[in-house]
Amino acid sequence: AFTRATGGLRAWDRRAAQRASLYFANSTSVQGRIAAAYGVTRAQYQEADHLVPNALGGAQDDRNLWPEPVKGVKDAVEARVLAAVCHGRMTLLAAQTAFVHDWRTLR
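Above: the chain's sequence. Below: its structure in token form.
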């Protein structure tokens, strides 16, 4: 469970969420739906990534996926924001809102 008292997501929960997230986002059918939804070809992006990370309460749903042009660019931002939320330096709502509107503002 995600709580500040436990320092955010417990390590086991984090690993389980990451595995499920990767399987869902990288399945061929999901990749095709995301490409069609954004009007791009599969060759124009490297992976479908969760806009609001699962570790921060993002849904395991196509509406929370976007075609990430360069794989891994957002990962360091996600890790830093998760740590900030777990340590009380940022609210969960502020983190989710920032990812929804423009995650690049969190760099």
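The two ends are 26 Å apart (CA to CA).
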